[in-house]
């Protein structure tokens, strides 16, 4: 906030009491008119839906409408009263229902196996955003009834015997300054049950994925953070099942990935030496089991999400 004329408002959405107190105190000192923008009423979209998935996006949409309407008023553009109960102006509806933001609640069928491998990408990296991400993923994958959102058309007359099972896989990475004990439990409590969790190095390498295009991996690559994430995940899995935490040395085994590096593979998780190797493993797995649709949640880091988008679109 900057000191300004009281006629120029500042907008926020509903905040926890402590945060709201700070905003109100700051606004009072600077003589700023602080206003709370409420979540957008879906009825104002004239029967359409927000382009960005997730219930929390209605908060963002309400804030966007408040900001845009105020700007239009102050710049002399004629607009209607926004306190009405009817639909929003058509340009507002068009913007809200066609907006796109890569890496946030984004669904991308794999270019090589669109019917067998689907990536769900959301760059959540805080406990609150992780919970919103988990709710979104659970809703999208529930009963596998979201096929219309995938950019392909399934067979119109699929017989009962050809119906695919689904398996959910987590592809996760976060900065070492983040606490996995705050992030991962949100996924486990809110989300579907993951068949496997995959952890990749914090700084992934950009290479085209393919049999002849595997990256050259530094044999000295430091995977200590990925092993820490894996231990946290395995411990949470054991606790969730009501068991006692086990020694990972007894529960896991050393295997070779596609680059020839030794990594630890456990019952519920694996560490890969590079992101391209993890993508190749996912594609190979999907090719081997054609009766399962693998739904991969990519989250924890916007860097990871960006790298995955570059790799799977090649």
Automatic annotation (TrEMBL):
<dbReference type="InterPro" id="IPR036565">
    <property type="entry name" value="Mur-like_cat_sf"/>
</dbReference>
<keyword id="KW-0436">Ligase</keyword>
<keyword id="KW-0460">Magnesium</keyword>
<dbReference type="GO" id="GO:0004326">
    <property type="term" value="F:tetrahydrofolylpolyglutamate synthase activity"/>
</dbReference>
<keyword id="KW-0547">Nucleotide-binding</keyword>
<dbReference type="GO" id="GO:0005524">
    <property type="term" value="F:ATP binding"/>
</dbReference>
<dbReference type="GO" id="GO:0005739">
    <property type="term" value="C:mitochondrion"/>
</dbReference>
<dbReference type="InterPro" id="IPR001645">
    <property type="entry name" value="Folylpolyglutamate_synth"/>
</dbReference>
<protein>
    <recommendedName>
        <fullName>Folylpolyglutamate synthase</fullName>
        <ecNumber>6.3.2.17</ecNumber>
    </recommendedName>
</protein>
<keyword id="KW-0554">One-carbon metabolism</keyword>
<dbReference type="GO" id="GO:0006730">
    <property type="term" value="P:one-carbon metabolic process"/>
</dbReference>
<comment type="pathway">
    <text>Cofactor biosynthesis; tetrahydrofolylpolyglutamate biosynthesis.</text>
</comment>
<dbReference type="GO" id="GO:0005829">
    <property type="term" value="C:cytosol"/>
</dbReference>
<dbReference type="InterPro" id="IPR036615">
    <property type="entry name" value="Mur_ligase_C_dom_sf"/>
</dbReference>
<dbReference type="GO" id="GO:0046872">
    <property type="term" value="F:metal ion binding"/>
</dbReference>
<keyword id="KW-0479">Metal-binding</keyword>
<keyword id="KW-0067">ATP-binding</keyword>
<comment type="similarity">
    <text>Belongs to the folylpolyglutamate synthase family.</text>
</comment>
């Amino acid at each position: 906030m900057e000191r300004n004329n009281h006629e120029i408002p500042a907008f926020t959405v509903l905040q926890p009491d402590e945060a709201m107190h700070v905003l109100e105190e700051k606004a009072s000192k600077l003589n700023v008119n602080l206003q709370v923008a409420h979540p957008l009423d879906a009825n104002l979209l004239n029967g359409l839906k927000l382009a960005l998935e997730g219930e929390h996006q209605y908060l963002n949409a309400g804030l966007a409408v408040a900001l845009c309407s105020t700007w239009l008023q102050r710049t002399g553009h004629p607009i209607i009263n926004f306190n009405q109960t009817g639909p929003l102006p058509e340009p507002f509806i068009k913007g809200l229902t066609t907006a796109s933001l890569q890496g946030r609640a984004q669904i991308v069928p794999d270019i090589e196996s669109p019917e067998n491998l689907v990536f769900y990408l959301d760059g959540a990296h805080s406990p609150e955003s992780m919970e919103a991400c988990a709710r979104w993923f659970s809703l999208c994958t529930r009963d596998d009834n979201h096929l219309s959102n995938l950019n392909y058309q399934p067979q119109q007359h699929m017989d009962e015997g050809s119906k695919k099972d689904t398996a959910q896989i987590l592809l996760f990475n976060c900065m070492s300054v983040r606490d996995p004990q705050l992030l991962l439990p949100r996924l486990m409590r809110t989300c579907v049950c993951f068949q496997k969790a995959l952890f990749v190095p914090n700084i992934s390498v950009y290479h085209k994925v393919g049999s002849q295009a595997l990256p050259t991996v530094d044999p000295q690559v430091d995977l200590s953070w990925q092993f820490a994430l894996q231990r946290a995940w395995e411990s949470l899995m054991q606790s969730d099942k009501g068991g006692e935490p086990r020694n990972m040395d007894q529960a896991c085994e050393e295997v070779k990935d596609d680059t020839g590096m030794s990594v630890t593979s456990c019952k519920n998780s694996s560490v890969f030496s590079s992101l391209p190797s993890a993508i190749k493993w996912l594609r190979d797995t999907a090719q081997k089991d054609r009766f399962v649709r693998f739904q991969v949640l990519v989250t924890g880091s916007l860097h990871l999400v960006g790298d995955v988008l570059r790799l799977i679109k090649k």
